[in-house]
Amino acid sequence: MKYNRLSLQDFLGNLSSQINPSKSQVDEFKSHISKLQQTDKEESEEHHKNAINSFLTQCFKYTINTKGRIDATIFEEGEAKVIIEAKSLKNKSQFPANAETLESKAFCESILYYLRESISNNNNNIKHIILCNLNCFYIIDAKEYYQCFSKDKTILKAFKNTDLKEGNDTTTEKFYDDLAEYLPKLNSEISYVYFDLTQTDTMDIALIYAVLSPAVLLKQKMFIDANTLNQGFYDELLYILGLQEKLENGKVIIIPSNTQNTFLDSITKNLGFNVQDDFEDIFSLLTTWNNRILFLRLLESMLLSFGHIKKPFLDLEIIPDFKIFNQLFFDVLAKKESSRTQIPKGLENIPYLNSSLFEKTTLEKEDEKKGGKNKQIRSLDSNPLELYKSSVLKKDSEYKNKDSLPLLEYLFSFLHSYDFTTTPQDIENHTKINFDKLINSAVLGLVFEKLNGYKEGSFYTPSFITSYMCRESITKIVIDKFNSAKNWGCKTIDELYNKIDDIQEANKIFHSITICDPAVGSGHFLVSALNELIYIKYKLGILCDEQGRKLKDISLELSNDEIIIKGQNGEIISYCIPAHKEIESHKIQKAIFNTKKGIIENCLFGVDINPNSCEITRLRLWIELLKYSYYEDIERKYLQTLPNIDINIKAGNSLISNFPINTKLTTGLTIEFTRNLKTAIEDYKTQVSLYKEALGNKTLITQKISSIKTMLKEHFIKWDKRTQSLEKSVREFVGKYGEDIFKWEQKFRDSDFGFEIERIITDSLYDEKGKPKNNPIKFQKGLEGISSSSEPIKTPDELDKVGLKLLESIKSDFEHLEQLRKGDSFEWRFEFPEVLDEEGDFVGFDLVIGNPPY
User: Fold this and answer.
1) Which of 246, 34, 13 is nearest to 134 (CA)?
2) What is the pLDDT confidence band of residue 62, given thresholds at 50, 70 and 90?
């Protein structure tokens, strides 16, 4: 038999990046190891066994007991799951001689106990076998025993001779002797992990913790949720904003607090708002500013890690008041470096990112034209705010004896009490550093979502669910996409990998995948989809740089909804300002950024009825790109700008649409008009592309896109059967009763209805060139038999039943068509040009994913 010793990381496999104990857990684990090592080495074997059982129980709350002749068994729900064969340190003759072999009486005993449990007791749920003493542990997956021993005829015969009393000598010693003689001849290999508790370094301790944890030993399902709220951070953030949570009708909602000198209090005092009457507007400002501030704290952390700045810019020395904060928003981050003037000292090196997050909202622009006071952050005061009852600052000696701080100082101090990160570098030697103070993009996503659900309460899907759903569904659509494009019959990603021979073509096919979340919320599904798509590209071997060259000598894995990239030696790749563009970390950073950008622009789409949800989703996707920002101009320290991805995330009621998605756009049209329509579709796609890439005047591009969408909508309205019904009814009515009834008061002539009636009448009388038609409608000035008056009819009161019915039909048809034009619907038929073919017909998304309605 061959003995294959695995490293701790190889034994753990993917779990090595998923089970990362906190520093406090590792310290406690070390303490238990130290206590185990203090066990008297001269004590009996039974004493040593009890010490080992106590060690495992104290560390991991295992239920351990004996079972039959087995030294110890870890039970779960009353069933034996792990077999432990323990020896004393003095009993070296019955224990493996060294780390490279299992050969020993302890090994033979464990095989007998396994066979008894699996065959005699019909236990098919044994997970692991442990051979150990106070210092050394050998751990073997029970599947290794099943494959090597359960089917071997010689071993089974020896077992039956002993355990089923079928042999002449039925003693266990006979079984052990026969097994010891047979194992060296057995043509099998068994894998295991070994560690010595007396010879471990910092990295090994965390990995040993993982190996001995229930997630490994008991193979418990791991539901790791990166989207876990840091309650202390969230509660104090609400307090600073001037908000508080309240349980109402079984839902946690957010309401104003009465605390003085919070953001909300300063808004009401300085911007002329009333808390009760204007809470919607107040909350809108609070969430806008909160989103910006948290984004800036994340940006600050990234720039510090890059070496872009030497010290934080969210500091009173640089931003002493809210007026300077306002300048940071609109005069720095909203403008390209070349367009900035009179930048406050300390903010000169803040990069332009092209994020609409720093464009003025409607409220912020509201009073500018009137010359009134702007509803902008610059108008706030920074008066002393009493420290939150359980403030994180009270743990800091600098603030221990302070009862209050000016609002802006409180905000900055609070934010810097937590470690904001855009990278997985919070894991050091497989240990979570400052876990209780770590704020990453997933935690921020949950904060955004809870604030967004202030009325109805927030609902979020744990990361392990979004990741699982995305992995299962996206893997299938990727395979289907390639099979369809290349006429292949692949069933797995590995089969696809072996088929791909043209990386450039493969990337083109890959980026044609379209995924939509029709109730996007905080964007959690889209973030999981983004990272899953990156991972699949890596597995397919088509993750490339901008020249189409495959990234080599890296490994990429997904952990907790995050991408982790490691070098060939297993080190996590980090980024800082490169000396030149050929630095490997720079090429990797740039490649991941551009890949993410391409996927976000081409593949990911979302809709939500709540506009704030759309803003949060855009923000989360921007943060995903921010993690891999790179220097486009190294010498001038210009970061690559973020694309205008907001156009892929639209506000609207995704359940209501008026135009069927299966209608053909060009049916029944002249060839010339069809060509014009195709040109319009091409222009639509071009304008959207220009918008995303920020190429051209954003306002003009937006106007063109709006104009094309209006034209498409009017085209569908024109061919709607109710338009034809309206025109028929108007012509019939005018032909019989005249047109004057539609002009009986001035406001009618100026209304949308008046314009529509006039259009129909004009179209009936004149051709496209304005010439009278040969057979125009005959207009009567009066109603013979109903009125003797020679004057035109002034009101509908004198109409007969036929006329009244026609008027009712006209009114009904017009209202229906106006609803199509102005109603609160979301028109899937033409909102996303990425899912229209060259004829303008809707081809749909490859995957629609999301939560069911709550």
Assistant:
1) 34
2) very high
Q: Cα Rg for the chain, rounded, in angstroms? A: 36
CB 631 within 8 A of CB 583: no
d(CA 372, CA 375): 9
3-state secondary structure (DSSP) of residue 527: helix
Q: Can you tell me the distance from the alpha carbon of 744 to that of 349, in angstroms, rounded to the nearest whole number?
A: 66
How many CB atoms lie under 10 A from the CB of residue 338?
8
- H or E segment to which residue 357 belongs: none
Q: What's at 292, amino acid-wise?
A: R
Instruction: Calculate the alpha carbon distances from 819 to 656, 721, 811, 815, 825 in Å.
Output: 12, 14, 12, 6, 9
Question: Residue 211: phi, psi to the nearest 5?
Answer: -60, -40
DSSP 309: -
Q: What is the pLDDT of residues 791-847, one digit of tens each?
A: 444 455 566 788 778 878 888 888 888 787 777 788 898 889 999 888 888 999 999
pLDDT digits (tens, 9 = 90+) for 715-725: 778 877 888 88
Residues 540, 525: contact at Cβ < 8 Å?
no
d(CA 54, CA 35): 10
| Rounded Cα gap, residues 362 and 359, in angstroms | 10
2 Cα distance to chain centroid:
45
- Give φ, ψ of 458 to 5 degrees: -105, 145
- Whether residue 151 contacts residue 144, with contact meaning beta carbons closer than 8 Å, is answered with no
Q: Which of 305, 567, 539, 600 is nearest to 423 (CA)?
A: 305
247, burial (CB in 10 Å: exposed 0-12, middle 13-18, buried 19+): exposed
How far apart are alpha carbons 65 and 62 in whole angstroms?
10
How far apart (Å, rounded) are the C-alpha atoms in residues 841 and 681? 10
Nearest to 328 by CA among 293, 294, 373: 293
The answer to whether the CB of 108 falls within 8 A of the CB of 62 is: no
Q: 2: number of CA atoms within 13 Å, CB side?
A: 5
Residue range 672-710, pLDDT digits in tens: 656 777 788 888 888 988 888 888 888 898 899 888 888
**Can you tell me the distance from the alpha carbon of 478 to that of 542, in angstroms, rounded to the nearest whole number?**
13
Contact predicate 471/458, CB 8 Å: no
- Give 573-583 pLDDT, tens digit per residue: 888 888 888 88
Confidence at residue 718, expressed as pLDDT on a 0 to 100 scale? 80
**Residue 482, C-beta contacts closer than 8 angstroms, at least 6 positions apart:** 488, 490, 496, 499, 500, 506, 509
Who's near 774: CB < 8 A, 6+ residues apart? none
* Cα 536 to Cα 492, 496, 507, 527, 825, distances in angstroms: 11, 11, 11, 14, 35
Distances from the Cα of 170 to the Cα of 107, 108, 115, 151, 781, angstroms: 19, 16, 15, 21, 120
